[in-house]
Each structure stands twice: as structure tokens, then as C-alpha cells.
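User: Hey, quick favor. My workstation is busy. Could you predict this chain's structure for me?
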Amino acid sequence: MIASAVRRLELEAFPVTIAALYAIVLLLVMPGELVQDSWATLVAGREIADHGLPHRETLTVMAHGARWIDQQWLAQLTFYELFRVGGFRLILLTHVALIASAFGVALVAARYRGASALSVFIVGCACFFVAPWGWQLRAQSFAPLLFVGILWLLISDDRAPSRRVFVVVPLLVLWANLHGSVVLGALLAALYGVVLLIGRRPGSALKGTALLTLAPLAVFCSPYGLSLVDYYRHLLINPPFGRLVTEWTAPTPAPITALFYILAFTTVWAVGRWGRKLTGFERLALLVTMASALSATRNILWFGLAALVLLPLLLDEAGLASARGAHPAVRRVLGLAALGGLAAALLVEGTKPGSWYEHLWPDRTVAAVAAATRAPATRVFASDRDADWLLWKQPRLRGRVAFDIRFELNTAAQIRSLHRFFNRIGSDWPAASRDYEVILLDRDHYERIRVSLAAAGGIRQTYLDPDHAVLVRTGVPPN
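Assistant: No problem, here it is.
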């Protein structure tokens, strides 16, 4: 058995190495994976645990009373319950396991599809940093693994028809309660149903009809039911914040998107030259995910995973499959070193003290805000990065924070007002914060705002560190 495992490791040394390196990097940067979306996920999970599924907004001032369809409720509740059991260590390790597993399963799918170990390694290197924002802990953390699993089921059935493809439906139902990206998974499943109907292979008509019908219906298998129609329409068709939040805008050429453009051009070239190696559905999957990525930066993640599964097979046509590999002993050492490094990283990073995981979010800032908001009616205007962090750390501020990152709950006028404030547009740009006694600013992004407000009359600075500033209005009774 050991000899068989060693021989297997020699064959798969390159994919094993890139998968292990990916997991190691995720482990090493765990504190940086806690972002505003992470805090929002935990806050929403606590709301669900304490008050049940939300239907009206009660956490923030600006959106108070707005209809809140919390489509991601299951992911939020899961992360919150994991936090109650094991704190930040457990939720971050779970997150790393989910993201690393998606990458690893995509590598395995590429190998089962017939790609060589070397081509899988090369594409894996290209996809390593193609969407680093996908490393952030958020409700979306569950979605990449589901995406890869569904894509693998579909392309496997395209090559060797089987009833296993119907596992796609319960996976979509699960995904529909975890993250809104389920729409992309349902679209791929429905498109595969169309491909089956058009292809008219023996016995494919019933399967195609079932997938074309059940995949869209699975999106609405949620406690919110058909109310999700308006939710998806609001978010996917010209959302009011679409041009203001970077992740929702189309990717423009920049250092952070350079790998995406390289990968996209390589994919177009490879499909144009050797596309016949792929089935019609596989080419369609690459096209759909690439179009999705070109429409919004946040969707580059899905194209990266699809390319990781399908592109290596095309690169083999360039002669990589026949390229002379490293000596078996070298491959064995490489694989063992990668696995050993992963075990060491897991041991070191997984046994850090609890405070290490959130050390990038200093408690001193929270204490300063707590001191400034002792009066029960005092309200806080916090920058988007910090609002949900405050709500998590200071539950008593529930209903007293101006807004948070759930911009879909705000009106278009409110979003424009916030845009003017944070970009200092117009002579009355501070208007959005005027009704709030305490202002918390992220200095990395809003230092010029801090300087302008601190220089204005009626405002004093009560706390300052390299990352945050707390400003308090003087002579103004709590609203």
C-alpha cells in the first residue's frame, strides 16, 4: 500500500505541489482573510440565531425598515455557529479548507478529464493569484467547491452519460441558501440541458428537460421562495451600487487583473486552435464564465476555476503531455516536501493564540468608539470597512450605525449621498454624516476626509492610530 501511494505521488507530484502551495499560502495569510464581509457574515449569523430569519432591516439607521431578503442565511448561520464552537481559529481553518478544496478538486477534475500533470501544474500556477479577493472569508466561501463539483458532474456526463448528473440539483438547492452565485451554477446546468436537447442523443431528451426545468427552480428552494425573484433582479440587473463598488464593476487592465487577461487571452487562443478537443458544452462553459468575468470583477473567480478544469487539456496539444518530466526520485521528493510543508503550516498557523487571527482589527479602536457612544441614543457614522466590525464587537450599537456593506438595502439616493461623502464631491459633501454624533474613519482610504472634518468647527478628534480615527461632534445632543 505504501509503495502504491509513493508511485501515485510520483505521478501526481506537480498537481500535489501546486495544491499544497495554494493551501499553505491561504494558511499563512489567514488574518488578512478577515475583511468587512467576514464581519457582516458573523453579524447576520448572530441575528439569525437570536431573532430568526430576517425580513426587515434593524441593524442600520439609513436602511431601517427596508425589506431584507437574506439569501445567504445558511452560510452566515453556519459560520456563526462554528465561531461559537471554536472562535476565529475554527472559522478561518474551515474557510481555508473550503477554498483550498475547490482548487484541489479542480486540479483532480482536470486530471480525470485527461490532462497531463505538467499542464495541470502550469495552469494551476496561472490560476493561483487570478482572483485573490476570493480568499476572503465570506458567505461565498462555500460556493467555489460547489461550482467545481457541479461543473465536473456536467462535463463528466457530457462524456459518459450517467444518472449521477442529477446530483447537480440538490447541490444547487444547497447553494441557493449559501450564496447568490448559485445563479451561475443553475445557468450552466440549464445550458447543459439545452445541449442535451439539441444533441438528440438516445435517452438524452428526458435528462435535458429535467435539468432545464429543475436547475432554475432550485435557485428558489429557500425559505424566501419566490421573493428571491425581486432580490436577484435587484442585484443582477443594474444594481444602484454597481458602478461604485469595485467588485461589481467590469475589470479594467491593471496589475491586479493582469493574470486574468493573460488567462483569458490564452484560453481564447487555445480554444481557437485546439477547441475540438473539448465538447460543445465545455467550450460553452468557458465562454459563459469568461463573459461573466468580463461583466464584473467579482466573477473572475468562476472563470479561473473553469479554466483550471478545462484549459490544461488544450495545453497538452502544444506538446506538454509528451514533454520529458523530472526524474521519479525528484518528483517523489517534490511531492513529499510539499505535503510536509502543508502539514507544518497547518500545525504552526492552526495553533496560534486566538488573538493572532484578528490582530489586524485592534480592540483599542472599538474601545474608543464604545467610550464615545455611552449615551444610549448616540449614533455612529462608520466607513464601510468598519461598520460591520463595530456591530460585531459592540452588539449594543444595533440600530445605531449609519450603514454597512449591504448596499442593496439602501436607496439609490442614499448610495449617491455616501458616494459624495467618501469622494468629497460637491460643496456639501459632509451632509451624509451630519446627523451622527460619532464618526469612525478608515485612515488608509479616507485620511483626507479626516483632515477636512477635524479642521471644521464643532468636531473634535478623540482617538487616532495609524489605521483609524474617531471624531465626535461637540455641543450636539444625541439624536
